[in-house]
Amino acid sequence: MRRRFTQEFKVQAVEKALSQCDDVRLEDIADDLGVGYSTLQRWIALAKKHQLETHQTGSQMTAEKRPQDWSLEERLSAIIDCGHLDEAAINEYCRNKGLYPHHIKQWKQDFAQGPTTKLAKSDSKQLKQEIKQLQKELNRKDKALAETAALLVLKKKADALWGFNEDD
Questions:
Q1: I need a labelling partner for 38 at 20 to 30 A (CA). Which of 29, 30, 121, 145 fits?
Q2: Has residue 49 got a pLDDT over 90?
Q3: Which has more confidence, 63 or 139?
Q4: DSSP assignment, residue 34?
Q5: Model pTM?
Q6: What distance, in Å, lies between the first and last C-alpha atoms of the chain?
Q7: How far apart are CA 33 and CA 117, in angstroms?
């Protein structure tokens, strides 16, 4: 039997999925909501194309960035903006920016801890390519060194056969 979801539920589900931190898996969110993983993925894709809207309000989902897409400068600016605000004002600020207060708290902790050792995917990919290139170069140089050593050994043997001394 097929279960029907309201547009409002779909919008809220997508907003919840997009507002979660990186450490929460989409599969877990789908399980919590009682929907299939592929269904939630489809709703997210529709929302990103602005094809998922509520019939009651007629408004499309906001095109705001997800919290994990905010740059470090934007995060720092949000932390500074919320630094002097009380809890109610922080909640208002977060609603306007498409955030939750726990995002501000997490970012504040991250900045307090200093630079992380966790690399971004692009940095990691770039490092892997560089490692691969350096390994190729090292292998090429090892082969050249082995060839040079073999030629030196052959030269010594040839000199010995022909009676040439190194001292001459």
A1: 121
A2: no
A3: 139
A4: T
A5: 0.35
A6: 97
A7: 33
Q: Do 116 and 107 form a contact (C-beta atoms < 8 A)?
A: no
Q: What are phi and psi of 34, to 5 degrees?
A: 80, 30
d(CA 40, CA 127): 33
DSSP H helix total and E strand total for the chain: 7, 0
Q: If we measure between CA atoms, which residue out of 100, 58, 108, 101 comes closest to residue 80?
A: 108
Q: Is 163 left (phi over 0), alpha (psi -120 to 50) or beta?
A: left
Which residue in the block uniquely carries the two structure tokens 């090892």?
Answer: 142
Of 126, 92, 116, 87, nearest to 23 by C-alpha is 116
What's the pLDDT tens digit per position in 82-117? 988 888 888 888 888 888 888 888 888 888 887 765
90, 81 in Cβ contact below 8 A? no
* Alpha carbons 39 and 30: distance in angstroms, whole number: 8
Taking CA atoms, 143 is separated from 55, 130, 132, 134, in Å, by 69, 20, 17, 14
CA atoms within 13 A on the CB side of 28: 7
What span, in angstroms and rounded, lies between the C-alpha atoms of 42 and 16? Answer: 14
90, 108 in Cβ contact below 8 A?
A: no
Give pLDDT tens digits for 63-81: 556 777 788 888 888 899 8
